[in-house]
Write a structure and sequence with these properties.
Elements: H1 15-50, H2 60-76, E1 81-88, H3 91-98, H4 100-117, E2 123-128, E3 131-137, H5 141-156, E4 171-177, H6 185-198
Antiparallel strand pairs: 1-3, 1-4, 2-3
Amino acid sequence: RTSEVGVLVLGSTDPTALAHQVEVASALVAQGLTAFDNASLFARVQNLAVVDELTGIANRRRFLEMAERDLVAAGRHSRPLSAMMIDIDHFKRINDTYGHPTGDDVIREVAARLAAHARRTDLVGRYGGEEFSLVLPETGLITCKELAERLRSAIADEPVATRTGPLDVTVSIGTASRQPGDTDLITLLSRADQALYEA
């Protein structure tokens, strides 16, 4: 093992009995460590199933699952809900010029800034590659556009620190709001994606 998990202290008034107790304790500790390792591995696998490994935000599967839930709730209660699709501008040029590790630095930092500047109720996810999605419960289109500008500015106003030095990075953002006829998330995200394409 590379790190200590705990300490087991044995004591006895009978020195001859201690040797046997150490053997029993060692067997129990070994079983306990195996159980701990298995539980840790299970927790890691569970986490990887829902979290994007590079960025630490929701992966696409988890994002879609949670966003669908939010959309259904908004429809049931006739509440506003908006979505954003966000794409890092000219990302292929970053990868081609500086390499994929630097591209990963950019993706990681953009995700961190999105998560830091989104509201606590907003759902942020990595949609794929250099593309991110947000679902904003209780948010109409005007507020969504204001938030989109805040996120765009949070990324563009300060260079992104990378292993090859600071880089100026910008994003394009498309927004859309739930319409009464929206019954599935893909319809809403497609409208946001179309707005992103226009942006």
